[in-house]
Each structure stands twice: as C-alpha cells, then as structure tokens.
Amino acid sequence: MNYDQIAHVVKLGGTVFFTGFFLLVLVYVFWPKNKEKFNKAASMPLDDTPLSAPLATPSKEYTL
Length: 64
Known about the structure:
- The longest helix has 28 residues, at 3-30.
- The model has no long low-confidence stretch (mean pLDDT 86).
- The chain has helices at 3-30, 35-43.
- The relative contact order is 0.06.
- It is built from 2 helices and no strands.
- The protein has 64 residues and is mainly alpha-helical.
- The chain has a domain at 1-44.
- The chain is elongated and about 60 Å long.
C-alpha cells in the first residue's frame, strides 16, 4: 500500500465513523424517552429557585 491508498482508507474510515457517531447522537436526542429530560434542562436557566447549598462559598480549609 502506498501513501495515497492509506490516505484514502483513513479518510473513508473517518467519514464512516463520524457519520455513525452523528446518527447515534441524533437517535439519542430524538428518542421519546429523553424529551422530559431535555425540556427540564432547557428550562433550567429560567428557574429562579435558589440552590440548596451555595456553590461559590469557599470552605474553611481553603481560606488563606
């Protein structure tokens, strides 16, 4: 095999791999069971309820 043949096989393999990966992502996204999870995630930025524990509060062991 020369360089051109190897390059062709690698390009074809990459195209097949990423096309398959893209199709798997589409199946996951449009699977009916995931709709509620994605709707909940989409509304998270608009949710005004406070978090149970503040995330930005440093712990005492890390203070200088």
